[in-house]
């Protein structure tokens, strides 16, 4: 589900297929959580999608460190940090929607009250 949503978002940003340009345009919580390994894992940056595991191996107990993959279709889409970033964006857009709904509700109540007063 998260992978499909991210793919669609990237396709919309790009207009065609996903690439590094589209990933740079992602919101920071998603980019940090899904497109690169967590910082405390100790991975070394090589290129946009290539992160080299430490030579000593991953020492962190964080499951996100073990889930990370350099495969474009996997990256860290199943990581907890990616899911948290997606949730942060969802909550932000949800708050905007609630604000719009409240304004609409107040307007409808006002029209209803006006209609009731007109009948009297």
Notes on the protein architecture:
With 120 residues, the chain is mainly alpha-helical. 58% of the residues lie in helices and 3% in strands. It is built from 5 helices and 2 strands. The chain has helices spanning 2-14, 20-24, 28-34, 63-67, 80-119; strands spanning 44-45, 51-52. A hairpin with a 5-residue loop joins strand 1 (44-45) and strand 2 (51-52). It is rod-shaped and about 80 Å long.
What keyword list fits this structure?
rod-shaped; 58% helix; 120 residues; two-stranded antiparallel ribbon; mainly alpha
Describe the structure concisely for a colleague.
By secondary structure, the chain is mainly α.
What general outline do the C-alpha atoms trace?
rod-shaped
The helix fraction, in percent, is: 55-70%
Count of DSSP-assigned helices: 5
Order of helices and strands: HHHEEHH
Q: What is the β-strand count?
A: 2
Largest sheet: 2 strands, antiparallel
- Uncertain regions: pLDDT < 50 for 5+ in a row? 12-25
User: Widest sheet: strand order?
Assistant: 1-2
Distance between the termini: 54 Å
Global structural class: mainly alpha
Radius of gyration: 22 Å
Strand fraction band? under 5%
- What's the rounded overall pLDDT mean? 76
